[in-house]
Amino acid sequence: MNYDSILVRYGEIALKGKNRYRFEDRLLQNIRNVLRDLPQIKVTKTFGRIYVELHGASHDVVIERLKNVFGLVSFSPVKRTDLDVEDIKRTSLELLQQVKPFPKTFKVETKRPYKLFPLSSPELTYEVGAYILRNTENLTVNVHQPDTVVNIEIREEGVFIYSQTIPGVGGMPGGSSGKALVLLSGGIDSPVASWYAMKRGLQLEGIHFHTYPVTSEESIQKVIDLVKVLSNYTGQFRLHLVPFLEIQKEIKKYSQESYNITIMRRMFLRIAEQFAKRQHALALVTGESLGQVASQTLESMYTINHVVRIPILRPLITMDKLDIIEVARKIGTYEASVRPFEDCCSLFVPKNPTTKPLVTRAEFIEQKMEVDKLINDAIQRTRTIMITPQDDVKAKDVIFTDMQEFMK
């Protein structure tokens, strides 16, 4: 069946009182973003409802994209008819026949905002229900717990009918809770943390620290591909690629081995905080899970956090690894995350990292380093790209590095 539009339902934004219209406008914009390459589509808000008018676009394609829009609780493909009782009955039956598996029970619900329609809501409900029963087998009416509901809405401009309800991802509209910067490593955890943060309404930008050419071009490509998956939920995603090799050389030169990861992550946060200020982001997001590795003990996080004032959000802090992997599979990031390419962290892990680093010891090590200069140099050489679901971004096209300079 060729549908005319998709009825969109939203949840938590209805609870926001006076801010409801701001949240609705944000949701409208997010829907338009994920459908931007389908110019025939029109997204409208009428009578407190959001409709995606298809104008010939594939409803299957649109539905798959709407499943990724945060803030949508559910949606229904809608067929529009004229203000004619016979058309309404035929279309209602056709829609019911599209439900898979075919239901055993049903009911009809009618709303009639257009009061000049000749039949009342109960009268039209009876007419449509009787027509469906006459033209089907093994189907009965159940007004209390039906398998399927045929919904009919009578308006002046036409009649809107739907019978399927498809669940959405829920949450809050992207960007409605502000902006944050997520530290993306290329592993399993940080993309999942990104997804949870976006689900709570955060607009995210990503920052990735690489050590190309010591690590491969493929390790950067992995992060780009992960961001492309995440952009399916927002329509676009900005990524900052920070060269970190020179800083790692300095850490290796001056730090005791057990503190390498601690000093490295303190530098990560310093640089990320600078980018957050530039991009007007009010928080950092990480994929840390308490106790998962040496740098994620409470003592380690305390010492690492000590160098920044910006809030750090950790959506996965209490989650088990298996639970995180399950979510990664569900959101589509797992396959890219497990590609066997080393990042700057995996190449730098000491044999016996400290699990209880001291702030004073970390500061003593950093006094030997030109911290401000190293940070400024890395920021100056950062590459920033915007990625959408339709882009085919290649790492080799965005990383321009003088190999000899890095290998000094």
UniProtKB/TrEMBL annotation:
Gene3D superfamilies: 3.30.2130.30, HUPs. The keyword Nucleotide-binding applies. Residues 60-165 form the THUMP domain. GO terms for biological process: thiamine biosynthetic process; thiamine diphosphate biosynthetic process; thiazole biosynthetic process; tRNA 4-thiouridine biosynthesis. ATP binds at L183, L184, H208, F209, R265, G287, Q296. Pathway: Cofactor biosynthesis; thiamine diphosphate biosynthesis. GO terms for molecular function: ATP binding; CCA tRNA nucleotidyltransferase activity; tRNA binding; tRNA-uracil-4 sulfurtransferase activity. It is found in: Cytoplasm. GO terms for cellular component: cytosol. Its EC number is 2.8.1.4. It comes from the Bacteria. Keywords: ATP-binding, Cytoplasm, Nucleotide-binding, RNA-binding, Thiamine biosynthesis, Transferase, tRNA-binding. Its main location: cytoplasm. It is an enzyme of class 2 (transferase). It catalyses: [ThiS sulfur-carrier protein]-C-terminal Gly-Gly-AMP + S-sulfanyl-L-cysteinyl-[cysteine desulfurase] + AH2 = [ThiS sulfur-carrier protein]-C-terminal-Gly-aminoethanethioate + L-cysteinyl-[cysteine desulfurase] + A + AMP + 2 H(+); [ThiI sulfur-carrier protein]-S-sulfanyl-L-cysteine + a uridine in tRNA + 2 reduced [2Fe-2S]-[ferredoxin] + ATP + H(+) = [ThiI sulfur-carrier protein]-L-cysteine + a 4-thiouridine in tRNA + 2 oxidized [2Fe-2S]-[ferredoxin] + AMP + diphosphate. NCBIfam families: tRNA uracil 4-sulfurtransferase ThiI (TIGR00342). Catalyzes the ATP-dependent transfer of a sulfur to tRNA to produce 4-thiouridine in position 8 of tRNAs, which functions as a near-UV photosensor. Also catalyzes the transfer of sulfur to the sulfur carrier protein ThiS, forming ThiS-thiocarboxylate. This is a step in the synthesis of thiazole, in the thiamine biosynthesis pathway. The sulfur is donated as persulfide by IscS. Belongs to the ThiI family. This is Probable tRNA sulfurtransferase. It comes from Tepidibacillus fermentans. The gene is thiI.
